[in-house]
Amino acid sequence: MLAGRSEGELAAVAAEIAAGGGEACVARTDVTDADSTRSLAVRALDAFGQVDVLVANSGVAGPTAPLWEVAVEDWEQTQAVNVRGVFLSCRALVPHMLDRGSGSIVVVGSMSGKRPLVHRSPYTTSKMALVGLVRTLAAEVGPYGLRVNLVSPGPVDGPRLDAVLAGQARQGGRTVEERRAEYVEESPLRRIVQPDDVADAIVFLAGAGSAAVTGEDLNVSVGITMH
């Protein structure tokens, strides 16, 4: 079940899944809207009959600026997508999982939920909030057979990281290449996180191989964060 705001991107992923022999259903969803997330839950259950795994991966980077220069609407939008969106998605689907007595929820956060990220206070605040949400929900639903975990990626290669690096470069008077090199130097593995690195961690936490894991915060940060 694919959910998101961009119908074009959803359709492209659905076609990729179909080409690999899988089945995909697409639902245009705004995770900040309670009615939209409820509709997603209904469509998923209608299409597949049950939900085994929820991956809460929606997120925005938010503005890059000192806190005192951040517009209120930018702050609120970042919290709405990154925190409220996870809350509403879980709220819509957890009751079904409770009825079944099983399920795995994987929330995608960030290593920035555990360390400062200068000029990114809305983003870091939202990602730190997810640590508390995941641990508390894991404690609440564990007795019913559900697991809840967090994946905290480091800098993930792709367009979003490029945009963030550009903003940080402007604020810090450096080039994008210099900022990227700083991340690489900070990593014991001397590289940037790749999307497949994050996907592999999510698959692990979603599946039976992590049956004894809940309430955890798994860093996928090429060693930049180790706590």
Report on this structure:
This protein has 227 residues and is an alpha/beta fold. The chain has a single domain, classed as NAD(P)-binding Rossmann-like Domain (Rossmann fold). It is built from seven helices and six strands, in the order βαβαβαβαβαααβ. The protein has helices at residues 7-19, 34-48, 72-100, 121-141, 159-172, 176-186, 195-206, and strands at 2-4, 26-28, 53-56, 103-108, 146-153, 217-220. The strands form two sheets. It has a four-stranded parallel β-sheet with strand order 3-4-5-6, with helices on both faces. Strands 1-2 form a two-stranded parallel ribbon. β4 (103-108), α4 (121-141) and β5 form a beta-alpha-beta unit. The protein is globular. The model has no long low-confidence stretch (mean pLDDT 94).
Give a quick summary of the entry.
This protein is α/β, with parallel strands linked by helices. Helix content is 51%, strand content 12%.
Q: Which word captures the global form?
A: globular
Chain oligomer state:
single chain
Domain tally: 1
CATH class placement:
Alpha Beta
The CATH topology is given as Rossmann fold
Widest sheet: strand ordering: 3-4-5-6
Low-confidence segments, ≥5 residues, pLDDT <50? Answer: none
How many helical stretches? 7
Question: Please, what is the CATH homologous superfamily?
Answer: NAD(P)-binding Rossmann-like Domain
Would you list the SSEs in sequence order as H and E?
Answer: EHEHEHEHEHHHE
Could you describe the largest sheet, including whether it forms a barrel?
Answer: 4 strands, parallel
Percent strand: 5-15%
Distance between the termini: 32 Å
**What is the tally of beta strands?**
6
